[in-house]
Amino acid sequence: SSPIQLEGIRELSRLGRHREALADAERLALQEPQNRSALYLIAANQRCLHQIDEALTTLARLEQQHPKSSLLFQERGCCYMTLGDGPRAITAFVQAVTLNPALTRSWTMLERLYRASGQAKSAVVAREQAAMLQLLPPEVVYAGRLFSDGDFAASEKVISGYLKAGGNHAEAFRLLARIKQQCRDFDEAER
Questions:
Q1: Residue 101: enclosing H or E segment and its boundaries?
Q2: Distance CA 94, CA 107 (A)
Q3: Which of 42, 135, 145, 186 is deepest in the core (most CB within 10 A)?
Q4: pTM of the entire predicted model
């Protein structure tokens, strides 16, 4: 899939043109059945069109193919919230942030759900995590999300672009070091 094609689908979603986005994502998934982003976008747009059962089925398919995809658990949490199933939503969002602690939306949803269910201490922890992420430059958060999902090349590209543009947040340098270490470990494992 071309990044331009995926970005076009994401843009349709952002614009609220969910039927078009869904149709395009489904076409892409037919061409590339293993495409994680296409399956995620199908599920997200199905949820936005109130096709919750279909979205959960798509997410189950995504989980079979990509069990460590943090966004699938975040989207599952959103589906369960739409259904009013707080406990299952909490479980899904916790899975999401366990896999990828850079998911601001999951932390924000967890805060709401914990607060609504009377779990004040957990709500405070979730709020603090979301607030900490909101203090970071968005490029650092995005690169951290990519890194946690195992997309090291894309993460390095984002963080390097941020640093080349004059960004100098300490977390950016820490993340770049983690990326470099992960790439070295991967290269050594291949030998």
A1: none
A2: 8
A3: 42
A4: 0.88
